[in-house]
TrEMBL record:
Species per Swiss-Prot/TrEMBL record: Tetraselmis chuii
Protein name: Uncharacterized protein
Domain of life: Eukaryota
Pfam hit, one: Pox_A32
Length: 113
């Protein structure tokens, strides 16, 4: 599986990149979440970078979202998603965070990293 391939590459002092595209339905499986969290928590030892592409921030399980180190995002689709992003990612008072969001997303295809 992926875990074994990543470990073998690390043993050979090679880096790995794991790209997960639109897999949020699979992330509802506890076993898959467990494996992914193990890869995330040990990514430096495994010489592993992970990119997870999702349509909606809230579609990822909270346990996975809490392990994220960088987030590139486009304008949130709804208030629930915006609230989750404020609470989990933006370490500013709500009013300041809203000002930042308005500034960043002032035109189509704008994004925040």
């Amino acid at each position: 599986g992926i875990r074994e391939a990543v470990k073998q590459s690390a043993e050979k002092e090679k880096n790995s990149l794991l790209v997960l595209d639109d897999v949020t339905a699979s992330l509802k499986d506890n076993e898959i979440q467990h494996i992914l969290r193990e890869l995330i928590f040990n990514r430096r030892h495994y010489r592993l970078s992970i990119i997870i592409l999702v349509q909606s921030y809230n579609s990822m399980p909270l346990g996975i979202r809490k392990t994220l180190t960088n987030v590139l995002m486009y304008k949130p689709r709804n208030k629930k998603e915006t609230t989750a992003i404020f609470e989990e990612l933006i370490a500013l008072p709500r009013e300041e965070a809203e000002d930042v969001m308005r500034f960043v997303f002032d035109r189509p295809y704008a994004f925040k990293f």
